[in-house]
Design goal:
Layout: E1 2-9, E2 18-22, E3 29-37, E4 40-41, E5 48-55, E6 61-64, E7 69-72, E8 75-79, E9 89-99, E10 102-114
Parallel strand pairs: 1-3, 2-10
Antiparallel strand pairs: 3-4, 3-8, 5-6, 5-9, 7-8, 9-10
Length: 191
């Protein structure tokens, strides 16, 4: 598990810190947040209540609270949840500390959510047999004789529009009405 330590001050003093995470992260990163008051450590105990809130790039909000946020050794501790990382972009997060129903201070930080290499629900490429090999290219088949035009797996021998003796190596050559090629290549202008 990745441990992400943050220091947040009850008195805002500049730009809130940014934490880089990956899209769909879920319980793979633990945040340990130390609280300060004008640079002096501010220790929390079990008389405080903490809620981690945020707004994702899609405009939807989340809250992490109750047993999912604990106070350990005076610090706020919680694990990242998938609900926090479903959308790539900047997630605006706030830590709300409350004591006796009075909000002490909201503390802010950002999460920069990097796009996942594979989106959730993406269909996986499959293999063609139990050997674990990728599907093979039919032109690599050793049983095919490349000198025999009727043994070409890329053409249909029953297709009357394909002459088995006709070369398709130069698709820019056009046959003349007599069935002969004129040797000129198509260039978009007059020959």
């Amino acid at each position: 598990m990745i441990i992400q330590r943050l220091s947040l001050d009850l008195v805002p003093n500049g730009t809130p810190p940014t934490v880089k995470v990956s899209q769909y992260d879920d319980k793979s990163r633990e945040f340990i947040i130390s609280i300060y008051h004008e640079g002096t450590p501010f220790y929390l105990d079990d008389t405080y209540t903490v809620i981690v809130k945020g707004t994702k790039p899609n405009g939807k909000a989340f809250e992490i609270k109750d047993e999912d946020v604990t106070i350990e050794d005076g610090n706020i501790v919680f694990k990242i949840k998938k609900v926090m990382t479903t959308h790539r972009g900047i997630v605006k997060c706030g830590v709300q500390i409350t004591k006796d129903d009075e909000v002490i201070s909201p503390l802010n930080f950002f999460m920069s959510v990097a796009e996942a290499a594979m989106k959730e629900g993406t269909e996986l490429d499959v293999i063609d047999d139990e050997s674990g090999d990728e599907p093979t290219d039919p032109t690599d088949d050793p049983t095919i004789d490349p000198s025999d035009p009727t043994d070409d797996p890329t053409t249909d021998p029953d297709d009357p529009t394909v002459d088995p003796g006709e070369s398709t190596d130069n698709p820019t050559q056009e046959p003349d009405p007599d069935g002969q090629t004129d040797g000129t290549e198509e260039s978009g202008g007059e020959p």
